[in-house]
Amino acid sequence: MNAVLPSRSVGSRSGSSSVFRTAARMEEMRPSAIREILKVTEAPGVISFAGGLPAPDLFPTAAVARAAAKILAEDGPAALQYGTTEGFNPLREWVRAHLAATVGHSVTPDRVLVTHGSQQGLDLVSKVLIDPGDPVLVENPCYLGALQAFRSYQADVIGVRTDAGGLLPDALEETLATAARRPKFLYIIPNFQNPTGVSLSAGRRAEIARIAAAHELPVVEDDPYGLLRFSGESPAALSAEVGMRDWIYLGTASKFLAPGLRVAWLVSSDSRIHERLVTAKQTADLHTSALSQRLVWECVRSPETLAAHVGRLRAVYASRRDAMLDALARYLPEGCSWTRPAGGLFIWVALPALLDATALLRRATEQRVAFVPGEPFWVGAPKRNTLRLNFSNASESRIEEGIARLSRLIGSTPNSPGLMSFKTKLTRSA
Amino acid sequence: MNAVLPSRSVGSRSGSSSVFRTAARMEEMRPSAIREILKVTEAPGVISFAGGLPAPDLFPTAAVARAAAKILAEDGPAALQYGTTEGFNPLREWVRAHLAATVGHSVTPDRVLVTHGSQQGLDLVSKVLIDPGDPVLVENPCYLGALQAFRSYQADVIGVRTDAGGLLPDALEETLATAARRPKFLYIIPNFQNPTGVSLSAGRRAEIARIAAAHELPVVEDDPYGLLRFSGESPAALSAEVGMRDWIYLGTASKFLAPGLRVAWLVSSDSRIHERLVTAKQTADLHTSALSQRLVWECVRSPETLAAHVGRLRAVYASRRDAMLDALARYLPEGCSWTRPAGGLFIWVALPALLDATALLRRATEQRVAFVPGEPFWVGAPKRNTLRLNFSNASESRIEEGIARLSRLIGSTPNSPGLMSFKTKLTRSA
Q1: How far, in Å, are A283, B100, B204, B219 from residue B240 at the CA level?
Q2: How confident is the model at residue A39, as a pLDDT?
Q3: Quick check: helix, strand or coil at residue B100?
Q4: pLDDT tens digits, residue range A83-127?
């Protein structure tokens, strides 16, 4: 066996000099243009309302350090060894008790799957449920990471209309009635939605549950922000509504503890789906970091400590939300409107209809302020005048200064053609 | 809007009472029967050679504890906050330098993607490259987790013949010549392969590289065990061979540091594929745990400390390999053969042709010893008389006792019909 020559034609090459040939699904997975623009806004001196970032000064850093020392001293080898795909059992048991106490789900711990962040949960749900072309229903606008996950499995993502109260039950009914094929599931964030900050009322929850049950429509409920409620009573999970048939519920430690640990969980109504999700997780990464899971468990296992920590987060985030709402009222020009969330991390702003928030962001470094334009959150025709503001990451004084900058950015160019959306310009010239 | 009734037929329901409908790919992702059998062998008193587990007593637990204290004291907020998808930059720079020093790859740090274990790397590679039905070439037998990842994206996995020296270049050439469609890539573990422990010679590496280049066949090289070489010189990566065209190389901290941290990396020859892998990673889980990445970096950044640690692992694992080879020679009955790896974690055993290792495992609790039968590692017709033994996890005395038990298990039932494979029985009765 010596010199080896190609024994057949090797087929056509792409224009690139690479011999890699990517899968068809990659056509749906283009890097986000917004992400590229946002990189520019990471310059020093920029006040950023862009990321969904918790406040790092409120991370329980000392508690995590104590937990790390304890775990590595008492249980080091197990914390550094391979673990089971399903997750660290004491954490799974804590999730069970936590869900029973907070959102009304009664599941056994063996129905809990620990994931490497909720984004992985969405990826696994997609892998288990979505065939190319399958319709999936989402709130419109919808969390961008969920859209990316569903599209990466070539879902036909269908946006359901929302209003100031969130998903419209009538619109859900109408979408189900007119869909060419039965959707695989409805994806929804009932509490302090990303990007709008809006929560569903009790009435809407009941209606959505009834529609889902009647149409045998599984509900994938994402609840990263539920604990971050600043006022009022926390409702039960949408998926825990009476009559709800099949569901998957995703929770996470990212927003109330620390996102950098990448520890989240999901539970589901159906043992067969649970098994499939476990198999998908095993294939995706074997299991979630054994040390990270133990760190989270050590930090949440005392109900008193956890309640004190969450209480502090709520107080600080509520003040920051108030500071942002005050600044928006004070600085934003006529014709702007925004949501008034009772919790979570985000406020959603609608600029005057002529303004294009993506074009605005391209000029954001002028005023050293960053945000996420609404465009990528929309399914179908985007409302280009919308944008998302995060209020949890910056101090109150920085929030005020940032909103003042944002208003200067808006005010300095209200009639600049570059800021008007194409559609709007067409409408005006028509 | 009140009572809501289904407005159209909801289509047929499956036999299950669940309204979930799973994706077609889940037909390829059935939970492993072997995994279920292995659960039974987790009983106390069982000596297990089944897992690919590093020795937990050799984990640098104290060093990880010191690193955790330092990171959380000096850089706590960043270690607990969201990070970039590509990974923690100092770790990426370390990977660049490490690969240049150990396997001959010269890449820039921006070509390094940190993953949540190499299993995630395999999942991302599959997601980016595999369309349903795409041929993918693997060594036969092949690492089970890779088979699962490729099949989860509905690849047509084609096994290429191997012998005691690993992948046969002639067989690769023949497979490429007869494949109905050009394979998307060749997946290969050139050092201390899982499951066989076999390494490729310099001659075979050169031949495989030449064949891959001639056929424009990208090579996905998985190298989790390369640092665990007990004797001889470490060769450059297969993907660093002269003339190699496009490749992806996967490395990991799991085997030389600690698998429970779930920190691995991949590098690739092509910037476009790198970008696609980053996009896939962002969709899969946003990024790898920020704390875990910093822990790994703190533990590997001193070359002297790392060399001392790896030296200790090599010495202990070499002794354990020797203990297992000695015990196999002493205890196993006539007609058995096995590999003699120069590193890694595994020895591959061929029992007499009449014996079925899967059937043997079902009775393994009788002798309180566990292993992984060869069956699931094979593509196509399995050699049922094969099995994989891990030598890194148990002490030398436990290894000797475990192999004695294994030989009793084999010896006690050499002619039991239940232990014979179906194929073998057919042959005998013919």
Answers
A1: 28, 10, 14, 11
A2: 76
A3: helix
A4: 999 999 999 999 999 999 999 999 999 999 999 999 999 999 999
What are the structure tokens assigned to A164, written together? 């100031």
> What is the per-residue pLDDT across A20-30, written as a single tens digit (0 to 9) for each?
999 999 998 87
Q: Which residue of A has its CA nearest to B213?
A: A6
pLDDT of residue B14: 39
Q: What is the 3-state secondary structure (H, E, C) of B182-222?
A: CCCCEEECCCCCCCCCCCCCHHHHHHHHHHHHHCCCCEEEE
Is the per-residue pLDDT at B64 higher than 50?
yes
Decide which of B29 and B157 is more confident: B157
Distance CA A99, CA A105 (A): 6
In this prediction, residue A175 carries a pLDDT of 98
- Nearest alpha carbon to residue A254 among A198, A200, A300, A302: A300
> Token pair of A219, please?
């509900």
pLDDT of residue B16: 52
Q: What residues pair up with A369 in beta bridges, in sequence order?
A: A47
Q: What residue type is assigned to position B130 of the chain? A: I
DSSP helix/strand/coil, A122: helix
pLDDT of amino acid B428: 35
Separation between Cα atoms, residue B200 and residue B208, nearest integer Å = 10
- Cα torsion B129, B130, B136, B138 to 10°: value is 70
**CB contacts < 8 Å between A and B, how many?**
306
Residue B381 tokens, joined: 């017709």
∠ Cα B368 B374 B377 (to 5°) = 135
Task: Indicate the range of A290-304, A354-368, A372-386, A391-405 predicted with least confidence.
Answer: A354-368
Which residues of A fall within a CB distance of 8 Å from B119? 283-286
What the block records as the tokens of A334 is 């006529």
For residues A208 and A172, the answer to whether their CB atoms sit within 8 Å is yes
Residue with tokens 């009639």: A415
DSSP β-bridge partners for residue B265 = B114, B251
Mean pLDDT of chain B: 91
The closest CB to that of A19, out of B68, B149, B246, belongs to B246
The model's confidence at residue A7, banded by pLDDT at 50, 70 and 90, is very low
- The two structure tokens encoding residue B337: 């053969």
User: Residue B2: phi, psi to the nearest 5?
Assistant: -130, -115
Burial of B209 (0-12, 13-18, 19+ CB in 10 A): buried
Say whether B20 and A79 touch across the interface (CB within 8 A). no
Q: Which residues of A touch B30 (CB under 8 A)?
A: 279
Interface of B with A in 270-329 (CB under 8 A): 270, 272-273, 275-276, 278-280, 282-292, 295
Cβ B120–A285 below 8 Å, yes or no? yes
> Phi and psi for B243 in degrees, rounded to 5?
90, -10
* Contact call for residues B185 and B268 (beta carbons, < 8 A): no
Contact residues for B347 (Cβ-Cβ < 8 A; gap 6+): B197, B321, B324, B325, B328, B338, B339, B340, B341, B388, B389, B391
- For residue B286, give the nearest of A21, A117, A216 by CB distance: A117
What is the structure's pLDDT at B364? 85
